[in-house]
């Protein structure tokens, strides 16, 4: 993929099209619901970036606390993991998580349903839950689903993509890490990767030889990135520094590094791309092969990243007996890449493009409702 390939056009001026402006002139205030999955941090970071780009009030729902800077209402939902052992959690294979007898499941769904009945939202953004999307649609609310990479051909994913008014794919249009059985057609909007941090301004110096380790929190136990970092320290290869601290501190570390070593999560790749820093990426084991799919997409593009291990098939965690010479060569290859090529992955406008999609769906819903 060429870095010039991310030519999606600017978002509409003010984020509004004529139908949306007409709906606003009618005097009916709009509110948009937003469900944030609690596994990992990427969904939360993306929600913060998208909500900040949407003109309407956005009400968040999650089992996580609200992210810093969230300005709208936020409801902390009870967890739905109280049923032990879970019974028929997939409803005979049609859904993902609806365990029989779960009080937490009933309470969280009731909370969302009561809010919908009271506030009458114009649409609901789902990132991600098949069950919450289905609930909203059954209550007459159009849903905008945030797509996830990987093999999403199971009945539950097919259902959620089928019922969506729009599907936002947070990656460039020239890669296709999503595999689905649903016919998305014009409902699929590839907006580019969404980063919570701004694109790196020019002139920031790189620290010679610096290697930054960007770790996620979506896995269980020691990760492949942890193992690689430990091996680097044992072998005295570079001086790997973990990307910790505040959002600003992490961004500064990424921007000044010569190489970043990270997993293949969407949020991690987006932040590295915004920092315009070459990377060594490792596909962690995740459901539906989502990180393997992202690794393949990156590997087939001209983005400034190398996938390690190069010949491991991208389907498993890095072997504990990894080849240090191979790792050192991979890092050196990454050092020689042009970080500015990341502009083909993150151009700083993806959140605005996604917000425009959300607001078009909301405007259509509000216009139809108030027109009856």
Automatic annotation (TrEMBL):
<dbReference type="GO" id="GO:0016758">
    <property type="term" value="F:hexosyltransferase activity"/>
</dbReference>
<dbReference type="InterPro" id="IPR007235">
    <property type="entry name" value="Glyco_trans_28_C"/>
</dbReference>
<feature type="domain" description="Glycosyl transferase family 28 C-terminal">
    <location>
        <begin position="239"/>
        <end position="295"/>
    </location>
</feature>
<keyword id="KW-0808">Transferase</keyword>
<dbReference type="Pfam" id="PF04101">
    <property type="entry name" value="Glyco_tran_28_C"/>
</dbReference>
<feature type="region of interest" description="Disordered">
    <location>
        <begin position="1"/>
        <end position="25"/>
    </location>
</feature>
<protein>
    <submittedName>
        <fullName>Glycosyl transferase</fullName>
    </submittedName>
</protein>
């Amino acid at each position: 993929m060429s870095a010039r390939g991310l030519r999606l056009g600017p978002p509409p001026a003010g984020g509004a099209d004529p139908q949306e402006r007409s709906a606003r002139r009618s005097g009916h205030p709009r509110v948009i619901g937003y469900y944030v999955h609690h596994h990992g941090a990427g969904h939360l970071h993306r929600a913060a970036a998208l909500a900040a780009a949407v003109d309407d009030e956005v009400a968040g729902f999650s089992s996580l606390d609200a992210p810093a800077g969230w300005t709208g209402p936020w409801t902390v939902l009870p967890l739905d993991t109280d049923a032990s052992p879970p019974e028929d959690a997939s409803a005979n294979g049609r859904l993902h998580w609806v365990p029989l007898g779960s009080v937490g499941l009933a309470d969280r769904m009731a909370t969302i349903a009561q809010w919908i009945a009271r506030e009458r939202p114009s649409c609901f953004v789902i990132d991600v839950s098949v069950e919450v999307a289905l609930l909203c649609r059954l209550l007459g609310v159009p849903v905008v689903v945030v797509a996830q990479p990987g093999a999403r051909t199971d009945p539950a994913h097919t259902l959620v993509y089928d019922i969506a008014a729009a599907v936002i794919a947070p990656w460039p249009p020239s890669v296709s890490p999503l595999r689905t059985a649903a016919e998305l057609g014009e409902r699929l909007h590839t907006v580019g990767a969404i980063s919570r941090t701004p694109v790196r301004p020019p002139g920031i110096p790189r620290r010679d030889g610096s290697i930054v380790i960007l770790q996620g929190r979506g896995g269980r136990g020691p990760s492949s990135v942890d193992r690689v970092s430990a091996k680097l320290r044992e072998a005295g290869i570079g001086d790997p520094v973990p990307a910790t601290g505040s959002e600003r501190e992490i961004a500064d570390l990424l921007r000044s590094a010569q190489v970043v070593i990270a997993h293949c999560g969407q949020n991690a790749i987006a932040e590295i791309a915004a920092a315009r820093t070459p990377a060594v990426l490792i596909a962690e084991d995740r459901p539906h092969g989502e990180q393997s799919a992202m690794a393949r997409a990156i590997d087939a593009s001209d983005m400034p990243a190398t996938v390690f291990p190069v010949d491991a098939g991208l389907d498993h965690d890095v072997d504990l007996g990894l080849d240090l010479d191979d790792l050192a060569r991979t890092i050196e290859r990454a050092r020689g890449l042009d970080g500015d090529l990341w502009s083909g992955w993150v151009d700083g406008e993806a959140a605005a493009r996604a917000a425009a999609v959300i607001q078009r769906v909301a405007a259509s819903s509000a216009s139809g409702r108030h027109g009856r």
